[in-house]
Design brief:
Length: 272
């Protein structure tokens, strides 16, 4: 028995399905810098701290026929090679350990260091260095040993050249003992918004965000710079929620960190 088909509808479905099957994971085919980059002058190095290794991204794996074994004891790791960077194409997508890649954060991808790890990267051509948090895998390219975020590449002077010779050094972080904690157990997280040498504008921003988001804000002074913080918060999920609201307000370089140790000494203004 012959079945009648609506030919226009049939070919429309074929076209749609073929289009879906050919589209890749990323909306952008070639990686690039952001079209309208926000200022990242105030973005600071990653803050090394002890973190348990992620459940995801820490198993031995194979890419393009080549096997990679995760370094189980990275203490003392030091390597030289070529650094590259990745940006807009991957922005907002999942990293190897399930986090969201943010090209404005100080992060990096490494083929074999455990995730997360903290490393010091030094551009051996210009002497600039930065500390980044490894939370992704790559780069899968001969001779390259680390893939930097857009912000990290900017700090190291690699954006224009695309690649540069670097030294990568693993930074060992020991688990802190609870009795030596500077803050109460509830004060686990704060959100750093900005860093500036202008106290008045910093105070204005601190008050504005506190009123807009209905959260506590404070200013910390260190090394002639004033930093705006929100918090502290005792719940990470709540902290992430506030961070998303902050970024929707346009502060894309804000990030979560531990409370600064000098908070009580250098707290210049606090709003509720």
């Amino acid at each position: 028995m012959r079945i009648k088909t609506d030919k226009p509808l049939f070919w429309l479905l074929v076209f749609i399905l073929s289009g879906c099957s050919s589209s890749g994971r990323y909306a952008i085919e070639n990686d690039t810098k952001p079209e309208k980059p926000i200022s990242i002058e105030h973005v600071e190095d990653a803050q090394p701290k002890f973190e348990p290794y992620s459940l995801g991204g820490n198993k031995n794996y194979t890419v393009n026929g080549k096997s990679y074994n995760i370094i189980r004891d990275p203490e003392g790791y030091k390597a030289q090679g070529i650094a590259s960077w990745y940006g807009k194409k991957f922005h907002g997508h999942l990293t190897s350990n399930g986090e969201i890649y943010d090209m404005y954060s100080m992060t990096a991808a490494h083929k074999t260091l455990p995730i997360p790890s903290y490393v010091k990267v030094t551009n051996t051509k210009n002497g600039k260095s930065a500390i980044v948090r490894v939370n992704d895998r790559g780069p899968f390219h001969p001779a390259r040993i680390i893939d930097l975020s857009y912000a990290a590449a900017y700090k190291l002077g690699i954006l224009q050249t695309g690649t540069a010779p670097v030294m990568v050094e693993f930074l060992t972080q020991k688990k802190e003992k609870p009795e030596k904690a500077e803050f109460s157990p509830a004060a686990h997280y704060v959100i750093q918004i900005s860093s500036s040498k202008q106290l008045n504008s910093t105070r204005t921003l601190s008050k504005k965000l506190s009123q807009t988001l209905s959260v506590t804000s404070f200013i910390n002074s260190l090394d002639d710079k004033y930093r705006v913080f929100l918090g502290p918060f005792d719940n990470f999920a709540r902290t992430q929620q506030i961070l998303e609201e902050v970024k929707r307000l346009g502060y894309n370089t804000a990030f979560i960190r531990k409370p600064p140790e000098t908070q009580e000494k250098n707290d210049l203004s606090q709003s509720n």
